[in-house]
């Protein structure tokens, strides 16, 4: 296995089965494709964990941005804006970062389950959720929002997020194809 990785065979196998036009006609290819879904989960988990850590290390400035958003949403100096600003503390930011890290851990656990069980359900669900996230990001950019200016994310992070999500969707699709092929093969083996 290590020698195959050094030769690039490991990467070549994954690149071949990720291609949606490549037919899956044997167990080895289907297994590799199903495990690509696990790699997509690990990629999303790493992305979520890095995002959570960035929020942790910038908690005070993030809380200040949240206060500005509250003022923009409810009107500067209004009672609701003041009450919201009081709640926007670093503790709230740490809690949201902790939730992000917990979600990343959950996605990593799903990746481990996918690696071992080679299902079609996990890549399907994670792929649909990732696609939904990309669509919401796109709709947010198209529709615009006056509060977005106060919560501006650096362009490089947005572009990186889109690229990571697109790669993850390709991996999830391959994982779904592989898991589906293995499921159909198992049914055929039981029937025949």
Structural commentary:
With 192 residues, the protein is mainly alpha-helical. It has one domain. Helices cover 83% and strands 0% of the residues. α4 packs antiparallel against α5. The N terminus is likely disordered.
Structural class: mainly alpha
Q: What is the N-to-C order of secondary-structure elements (H for helix, E for strand)?
A: HHHHHHHH
Per DSSP, the total helix count is: 8
Q: How many extended strands?
A: 0
> Distance between the terminal alpha carbons, to the nearest Å?
33 Å
Provide the helix percentage.
Answer: over 70%
Describe the main β-sheet briefly: none
Radius of gyration, Cα only, in angstroms?
A: 21 Å
Which regions contain 5 or more consecutive residues with pLDDT less than 50? 1-6
- Oligomer description: single chain
- Name the shape in a single word: elongated
Integer count of domains: 1
Strand content: under 5%
Mean model confidence by pLDDT: 87
Keywords for this entry:
83% helix, mainly alpha, elongated, disordered N terminus, 192 residues, 8 helices
